[in-house]
Design a protein that fits this description.
Layout (H helix, E strand, L loop, with lengths): L1 E8 L8 E6 L2 E6 L6 E6 L4 E4 L1 E6 L18 H11 L5 H17 L2 E9 L6 H12 L5 E7 L10 H10 L4 E4 L7 H18 L2 E6 L9 H11 L6 E5 L8 H13 L3 E3 L2 H7 L15 H6 L23 H11 L5 H9 L3 H7 L14 E4 L4 H7 L3 E6 L2 E5 L5 E2 L8 E2 L10
Parallel strand pairs: 1-4, 6-7, 7-8, 8-9, 9-10, 10-11, 11-12
Antiparallel strand pairs: 1-2, 2-3, 5-13, 13-14, 14-15, 16-17
Helix pairs in contact: 2-3, 5-6, 6-7, 10-11
Keywords: Hydrolase, Metal-binding
Organism: Flavimaribacter sediminis
Pfam family, one: Amidohydro_3
């Protein structure tokens, strides 16, 4: 007797018409024609059953704060930074918790069940750290939340940042963060990378740098990150987020850089929505869009995971906790429109992100925790094209969100009475 039996589902790896049985919060059987009864049977109807979505780069301390204390009228990075500086002294513990919990409600409805959030440690009160540690515990039954101790004003540029970062780690924050390109000099940036990697090595933690988030092709801290990763034996535990300067670097230098990143097993985390919005602001035309070289990174064997970064905060007034929107934008701006590339974009919001965050108990596979989402689409490419409706979201074998299919009713003489965009999937041959 299974708890749930999902019949006639398609999986991201191309298997079609399979049955997925869930018992005790785990996937028990995945095959065609699974026999047995279940407390609940779900007919997937040939739709995609996917592992849940993952956001490996977010700022939950700022989310849903749009308009506080005022709107970012220019929409620029610099005004967003200024706004955050104005908002930080006004933050309260309860307000940060409430906004974070509201965001997590939205995330669940979108099938987003694992999030890595950077939290600013340059406020001496560490108010946001305390609040998000609390949130992490509250949402544990339905969302995995990793926290990054992020010295947003610079480890050395902010006089108390290092002390506060160490305090945050002592409070149970999971990952060491940094922002080397925001230090006063290139030398200070490199020095901050060394120090932060040493802290991570001493404590056995992962590292995630906001790295080279600039249009300056000479911002090359990622090579220092790669070198320190190898020196300290941190391979596979370090991420370089954004990496937008790579968009502007010359090809010869990039040909040297990519093998260094591959050797260090660096995880690359572009943030397509935000990178193309905030970068290139000093250009007239041609105008750079700023997203890093995703196809080239993938070709080098580097793990690429897409993050959302922001949602209705001082830096970005849009967003909806929708990782399919993130993948959709990446496909367009990265010109990733081959069949293989579009599937790689889907991997970047699922399995690649799980690898970047070190999540081992992940995936639609027998014995794994039954965390998944049923989508109103046939396959990953259709899911990205449609930003497909999340029909059901499962957490440890329980349905925690349900959404009605998106169906339009038509009143056109001689035409069908209903339209389901998922019915427009191409049929090869």
């Amino acid at each position: 007797m299974f708890d749930i039996l999902i019949r006639n589902a398609n999986l991201p790896d191309g298997r079609e018409g399979v049955d997925v049985a869930i018992s005790g919060g785990r996937f028990e059987a995945i095959a065609r024609g699974v026999e047995g009864e279940a407390a609940r049977v779900v007919d997937a109807g040939g739709r995609l059953l996917s592992p849940h979505f993952i956001d490996p780069h977010f700022h939950m301390d700022a989310t849903l704060s749009l308009g506080m204390p005022r709107l970012n009228r220019s929409g620029t990075l610099l005004e967003g930074i200024a706004l955050w500086g104005e908002l930080k002294p006004l933050l309260t513990h309860d307000a940060v918790i409430e906004r974070a919990l509201r965001y997590c409600d939205l995330a669940v409805s979108q099938g987003l069940l694992s999030i890595r959030s950077h939290v600013d440690v340059c406020d001496d009160r560490l108010l946001a750290v305390e609040a998000l540690v609390d949130v992490r515990e509250r949402i544990k039954p339905y969302i995995d939340l990793q926290l990054v101790a992020f010295p947003q004003d610079g480890l050395y540029r902010s006089p108390t940042a290092e002390k506060n970062l160490l305090r945050a780690l002592d409070m149970g924050v999971d990952v060491v963060g940094g922002i080397p390109h925001f230090e006063r000099t290139m030398q200070d940036g490199a020095r901050s990378v060394t120090r932060l990697c040493e802290i991570a090595a001493e404590r056995g933690l992962r590292v995630d740098f906001h790295c080279d988030e600039t249009d300056d092709p000479m911002s090359r801290h990622i090579e220092t990150v790669a070198a320190e990763t190898v020196r300290l034996g941190l391979q596979g535990r370090v991420a370089g987020s954004h990496l937008t300067s790579m968009h502007s670097m010359d090809n010869y230098y990039v040909s040297k850089l990519l093998p260094l990143m591959a050797e260090a097993e660096i995880h690359a985390i572009p943030n397509p929505l935000i990178n193309i919005t905030l970068q290139g602001r000093h250009d007239t035309y041609p105008k750079r869009r700023g997203m890093t070289r995703v196809p080239e990174l993938l070709a080098q064997g580097i793990n690429v995971a897409f993050g959302q970064d922001c949602c209705m905060d001082p830096w970005y007034s849009l967003g909806a906790a929708d990782m399919l929107e993130v993948a959709n934008m990446a496909v367009h701006v990265g010109q990733m429109t081959s069949l293989d590339a579009m599937r790689q974009a889907y991997d970047a919001i699922t399995v690649n992100s799980a690898k970047a965050m070190g999540l081992d108990d992940y995936g639609v596979a027998e014995g794994k925790s039954a965390n998944c989402v049923l989508l109103q689409a046939r396959d990953p490419i259709e899911a990205i094209r449609l930003k497909a409706t999340r029909l059901m979201v499962f957490r440890q074998g329980k349905i925690i969100s349900e959404t009605l299919p998106r169906i339009a009713k038509l009143g056109l003489e001689g035409r069908p009475g209903r339209v389901d965009a998922a019915d427009y999937a191409p049929v090869e041959g």
